[in-house]
Amino acid sequence: MKILVLPRASNPYQRLLYTNTAFTKAEVSYVQPPTRYLAPLAWPYTVARLLAARLVGTRLVHIHWLYFLELPLRGRFFRRVSFLQTVALLHIIHLLGMRLVWTAHNVVGHEGRDGYGIRITRTLSAMADRIIVHSPQTTRQLSEAGADTSRTVVIPHGNYDGVYPTRLGRVAARKHFGVAPNARVILFFGLIRPYKGVEKLLEAFKQLKSGDHLLIAGECQPPDLARSLTAAATEYRNITFIHQSVPEEEVADYFAAADIVCMPFQTITTSGSAILAATFGKPLVAPRLGAIKEIPAGAGIFYQPGSDSHTLQHALEQALAGNLKSMGHTARHYADTLSWDDIAAKTYALYQEILTPSSIAS
User: Fold this and answer.
1) Across the chain, which distance is largest between two alpha carbons, in Å?
2) Among residues 69, 50, 70, 48, which one has the least CA distance to residue 59?
3) How many CB atoms lie within 10 A of CB 342?
4) Which end of the chain has less neighbouring CB within 10 Å, N or C?
5) What are the E-state strand segments in the chain?
């Protein structure tokens, strides 16, 4: 079985899926998105890769994210060009006689939350032979967006066991980040974008007790938001902002230093960062959005989406005053249920199903 996956992502999800023993007999190749300044070449490059893959017998394309066709230029004209390129690519896949699977990691791309982004979601859902969703909540979100959900299949997002080795214990990790040994540490971890609600977290944190510490780590893409976080970290000694893409070998250090992990998202489909926190056995504070609704209530404190910073402040206080050990154990137990062996086996079986002659004829 030959599979073309696009685009190749920097996060471990694809590596954990396709290196599993379930894919021993599969040949997986990737379309690597061009760098930012070569983004206009993404479309012809991807078409060329599709043609080359088909010539060597590839019959299945698996799309994970659509951001690789986003032009790095603003304006309605360029958004329309991005839309037309993406639709044309989907039609080329069908014209080549290739089967199409889409994993809806996001119902709508984070940079595509406009009319064109929604139309792409609807077009892709109509043309995909199967849509993999990580939870039933995603199927509901797709339906609310007007997408065709008749071919959705629920296959969970796996945990991060063994991906990020532990280097430092709690005391050493806190010393490394300049955090007081007895402080109660709230961690916000991952790529920082406006929809993740970090500004609301800043507001809520400033109302907490002086013995608490906020550790924010991740690359911040909007320059104005990065300046705001830097200013807050300069003004408040109990706020640490580490503005960088965190190397894999350092990821575990941040979770070792933390008591709880806060993810005050405004919108979300699937949260890999929530599963990462659960893998490290850390209590969560987050709104009941998307796949976060699937996390057991005992794994942290969960509040209604759209709440203000006072609600978030209250949730943080509840979590910090609660039984952190018990919540952490519940979170870790949830992560244990997300086995890659099971997930990879289900994904491979799905590929086999849609490549069978009876399925192709349908």
Assistant:
1) 66
2) 50
3) 15
4) C
5) 2-6, 27-30, 60-63, 99-103, 130-133, 152-154, 184-189, 212-217, 239-242, 260-262, 284-287, 300-303
